[in-house]
């Protein structure tokens, strides 16, 4: 087999082969080495070559066509002796039968996507039935029709420990961490499994566990194959007897210890129950097992779970192998605990996120929301949030925000901003006024003396607030650095709302700009989409293109489609497969009030305004067939509010009556800027008695501010 690439070649096979000369002595004899290695020595010494004896790894390369048949190979090193990698043979013939489906799937994936799969711990079969453990990488060719190249590295045990520890520490997902550990342990056996304490799996603490009370759940199992019925696979809880036996075995004398059960007879005697044997023993050939506890150092030490390595009884574990197994597990136990802590934080933030998601939009707007956290191996759940809630005056608030950063610091800020926005909007403040308060809050949270410390900063967070008026059928909106919402009108026309850019919350004083208020028509049947940047950002395309795709997806929502299903479809169509940021989407379909359920009168601020208002309201209430007691209460209410407006304000008075659900909403607007306050007065005081009447007649009342003055609203139960 020729290992010398042509000077003009740049294929992956030739590039790998060109490196082999630095590791493989050309012309070295392979016969003796093959027989020695076939007896179970998985090291990489090359007999007869001192330089090779100093090497820690030996490389090989195999080129495959699109049918996964070997077209070229370069496995001259003595360590590969016994591998029948001849041209024309299917590559899968070199694999153990149980590994064929998984490896075939990965080979096909590289062919289809062109993305390399690097450094998978894999076993290869020799002619005599023994196995060689290698680190296998799958590399695509420059042109897909040329197939692909599989490079293999037969590693010395110490390098395997180093490579395994490096691979295991690359993810914060507890399942992926356990899977990486199991794949590394496969170098010492035929089957490897990782069983974790249930509290570790869920992210809870594991200290204070009583001896023998451990509950184990299978977190990882390799290789990927069809397992016999009754065998425990990932995600399944081990039988209580098995958990108790493993806990007692590895916690002997209150000290975690590795145990070895050498053969099938001893396994059955220790496990006792046939049901437990079926659950734990992977097959007839795999009879011996080494159980290594995952231990966190401490006083007392904390057991996170158990790693199990199964092999044939005719290949007993040597002391050196057990030492390496214990060293690998000891080196990587802290990675499992880091993943546990990340899982705990992830769960806490998700719980907070779920509490902030909208429950309903009321009778005048249909609401649907989707929150999709970042993929588990990212920095953690971020601070994206959406909220929707009906305001006491009949309007509906739609809020979306994106707090800078990830983890609990971002989640705490997100929760604080969300609750503050809700409180201020419920108190009647306009969207721009609410953003001014949120801007000040973010600045305070960033203060070194009074705010969040430990290096977290929320400066640059964004927020968009929209208020839907179901009577006027329009949306009032303010934005602090957030991406513009998408509005789809009933005729199907979709477009971005023209919102003036803003630097965001907590910007430097020199950059601070006022928060503008924008008003847009939203006729009944309109669809408004508020979202965070994780839904439309893609490093490979401009963000304008991502927003355009969102507008197309939202405009395709049919008026008869269930809004929640439509929201899920939009997110699944646009969100990247590997999310590095959270995704949040809020869809609102406007309904509004019917014309026959509302009435508005504009009256001059004269002495006869209360009488005129009572006459017009009384006529409408008779038309609505309102009960006598309700009609009397509304008439007194309107009289008091209009009298107050004429007395303390100038300009015209606006009266609006809304029939909403089980209540009547009465609004009186004027040009005054004074805030009515309910206060205790003396027995001879005249001022303030009107508000006491309003308070007693209504189920709730309040004030909201407008550009021209204020509106006092009050609700009476019908």
Distance between the termini: 93 Å
* Helical fraction: 25-40%
Number of DSSP E strands: 25
Shape: elongated
Low-confidence stretches: 1-9, 21-57, 208-212, 449-454
* Major sheet: 5 strands, antiparallel
Q: What's the number of helices? A: 18
Radius of gyration: 35 Å
* Structure classification: alpha+beta
How would you characterize the overall build of this protein?
By secondary structure, the chain is of the alpha+beta class. It contains 18 helices and 25 strands. The chain has a five-stranded antiparallel beta sheet. A five-stranded antiparallel beta sheet has the order 7-6-10-9-8, with helices on both faces. A five-stranded antiparallel beta sheet has the order 11-20-19-16-17, covered by helices on one side. Helix 14 runs antiparallel to helix 15 (563-574). The radius of gyration is 35 Å and the shape is elongated. The relative contact order is 0.06. Residues 1-9, 21-57, 208-212 and 449-454 have low confidence and may be disordered.
What layout of secondary structure does this protein have?
Layout (H helix, E strand, L loop, with lengths): L11 H9 L10 H8 L11 H4 L3 E8 L5 E5 L25 H14 L3 E9 L5 E10 L7 E8 L1 H12 L5 H12 L5 E7 H4 L14 E7 L17 H11 L8 E3 L2 H8 L2 H7 L5 E11 L5 E11 L6 H38 L8 E8 L9 E9 L5 E11 H20 L4 H15 L16 E8 L4 E7 L5 E3 L5 E3 L21 E4 L5 E5 L11 H13 L7 H12 L8 E8 L7 E6 L5 H15 L4 H21 L4 E8 L2 E8 L18 H9 L2 E6 L4 E8 L1
Antiparallel strand pairs: 1-2, 1-5, 3-4, 4-5, 6-7, 6-10, 8-9, 9-10, 11-20, 12-13, 13-14, 14-15, 15-18, 16-17, 16-19, 19-20, 21-22, 22-23, 23-25, 24-25
Helix pairs in contact: 5-6, 5-11, 6-11, 11-12, 12-13, 14-15, 16-17, 17-18
